[in-house]
Design brief:
The chain has 214 residues and is of the alpha/beta class. The protein has one domain (4-154): Collagenase (Catalytic Domain) (3-Layer(aba) Sandwich), CATH 3.40.390.10. Helix content is 41%, strand content 20%. It is built from 6 helices and 7 strands, in the order E-H-E-E-E-H-E-E-E-H-H-H-H. Strands 2-1-5-7-6 form a 5-stranded mixed beta sheet, sandwiched between helices. It has a two-stranded antiparallel ribbon with strand order 3-4. Helix 1 (17-36) packs across helix 4. The radius of gyration is 17 Å and the shape is globular. The two termini are 15 Å apart. Bound molecules: zinc ion (ZN) (2 copies).
Length: 214
Amino acid sequence: MAFEFIGFTYVSNFLTPEIEEVVFRVLDEANRKFRDWGLPLRFLYLDKMTLEPGYLITVDTPGGRVKLYPLEVLIDFLDYRLKVEAEKRDGILMNKILGLVGFPLASRNRYFDFYESFLGFQAKRLERRIMVLSIKPFEGENAEKKRVESRLLKGILHEVGHAFGLDHCSSECVMNPPSSLSEWDERPPRYCDSCLRKLRLQVGDDILSWKFRL
Ligand SMILES: [Zn+2]
Ligand SMILES: [Zn+2]
């Protein structure tokens, strides 16, 4: 059976070993869910990344000055990583990557509203899809590990949904966007029937057109 893979990496220099553990548990859980839902989709871990301090920018926020990596830099890094890793594995379908970071996301574009956007960002480069997600908002006020884990899992499922063309949804569904963290805690860690159907079709289509290209 053919699968579609999503490359996964994270920027390690801002994550504690405790959170790294959470990240790997969430990744396993996401793959288990894809399997249980009959989705021929899996995350493929591509090793962690380290970003050099030279790329840091200082941003003024309502909470004071913070140092961050600009989203544009991250997207370039992730796109390059995906390109290189996909070329190494030319027998598999992998044209999407998800990069997780431990700092808030910001952009040189001052209209970028990163306080409202808890969830991730996506960019397209040719046929490649790059997703960036910050774990920072999910940590909230010293949230316990289990809670961070569940929030992050849902964040990842949400971004994966978008990467396959799903829009926001108003059902009991992970594609239903929250307006607060407590709303996010109420969302189930799954897609509603309609979203899952669309996702399954899209993954199937991807695999089919990839097979015909070989
Ligand atoms: Zn969304
Ligand atoms: Zn839905």
